Amino acid sequence: MTRPAARASGRRTGAGPGTGAGAGALAVLVASVLWGTTGTAATFAPQVGPLAIGAAAMGLGGLLQAAVAGRSIARVRTDLRAGWRTVLVGGAGVALYPLAFYTSMHLAGVAVGTVISIGSAPLASALIERGVDRRRLSRRWMAGAALGLIGTVLLCAAEAARVGSGSGPGTGSAVRTVVGVGLGLLAGVTYAVYAWAAHRLITRGVPSRAAMGSVFGLGGLMLVPMLLLTGAPLVATWTNAGVGLYMALVPMFTGYVLFGFGLARVPVSTATTLSLLEPAVAAVFAVLVVGERLPALGWAGIVLVIACLGVLTVPARRLRTPCRANTGRTVALPSPTGGRATEWP
Q1: How far apart are the C-alpha atoms of 110 and 171, rounded to whole Å?
Q2: Most CB within 10 Å of its CB: which of 99, 105, 131, 160?
Q3: Quick one: pLDDT at residue 52?
Q4: Which residues pair with 319 in a beta bridge?
């Protein structure tokens, strides 16, 4: 894949000193807050099944991203054709993620479904980066991820205890919960896959808007048949239609525009770890709006997730790291929380 000199300067990948990892981290955090509202929003359209909700949210949101990024995609179509395998893998991840994610929440509850889906993504991202990109993960990332994962485990344990006691809305059988957890793990893996694919395109010179538009546009196309098969309830009432439009425009379209901005500036393992804020937000909304009960153990998990975010968003020192494009230029990279050349004492 060719990279013109303008792209090799690092502006698209957060490499230049003028683009901070802090701005990318903030964008991912804001996106995570928006994503955290999806489970609660879905409860306002109980007649709409999880497959329809997922297909509408990610499908329409992805097609809108592709439409907005149309000119940018056309400008780099040669690069996208050269990386078609990455685009295809990312698109498949986009198509599978919402189906697994929303079904997981439907079966196991808003809090557990979100916690498992998002909480498993950082580990999946780390394994992908380590296995495919040979990226060495820093001690700082591992410490932050450990806090976040412990927090998500506590949240999950708290919700499982609530389900087992049969208290509060959204409780169900143990079998439903187990299946929901399994689908949550699948959602976490597919989330990591499409985040990695978009990040790989961006770091190879494709602008963030074009990378996200192509990956999410393809995923949106894949979801159209599912939307046609299951989406009739979405247009049955104004409330259902409003929920579908909100999911497509706010958490999915706006959220993933912000996520793409963040992916251009921080490693994918860092971005998926920062998105651990989503289950904390989802749990709070589930308590305040849906009426689910969260015991002290769950609140302790939220505190640990917030601590994880603090560890990962504290400004890091910068290193000058060789990053050779086809032009042979060397650019300055910020010291990421999970970068290949990052070392922490």
Answers
A1: 10
A2: 105
A3: 92
A4: 333
